[in-house]
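Hey, resending since the last one bounced:
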Amino acid sequence: MSPANAKKALQQYADPIRAKHSLRFFKTAKGEYGEGDKFIGVTMPMLRKLAKEFIQLELKQIEKLLHSKIHEERMLALLILMLQFNVAKKQENNQQQKIIYEYYLSQIDYINNWDLVDVTCRDIVGGFLLDKPKKHKDLLIKLSKSSDLWKKRIAIISTWQFIREHQFDYTLRISKTLLQDEHDLIHKAVGWMLREVGKRDLQILMQFLQLHYKKMPRTMLRYAIEKLDEGLRQDFLKGHI
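The structure tokens again:
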């Protein structure tokens, strides 16, 4: 089992038509957020299947996939890391969790599209920090203040694990930090996490919205209020709250 075997396995499931579509879907043209990314057209279910097959790869081997210019090879590497992290968590192997978490953070430059972030940071970053002291969780605040799009998205999406445990403080703090962010991918991510808060505690969401909804980008607001009653949604959209 080797990175070369993994790359060969990916090629067996490559689809040029899907790859061409992905170039547009993930905004790879000049000046777009995914500029220069390359795709071979492997589906997510197949990537997950292959991750299970190559779960025994070591970090140095995974890195050869993660540093690839091919998007699906990077995704496969991250899925393997996520599986390894979850196995370590199930086994209560704190040291291995820490190794994978720290390695993940050291490789952020290669976690450079929204799907790479969303699929893996919730488990690895959020999962590791969930039961850690504030001094560790504050890394997310630091990431949210970065100028890097993907670090900011990692910061907010990683709080999904906290939300599941009804820990909303970091989601709300980071959302406030990112209220004036200019990028649509941040608007969507923040709105999504606020919506998740609202599913568990509507009062907390309403308190946040009443304070900030007039300053929120339209997309962020739409995502945040998506599950509210239609009349309430329209009141927010029309500024009648």
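The mean pLDDT is 95.

Sorry for the duplicate.
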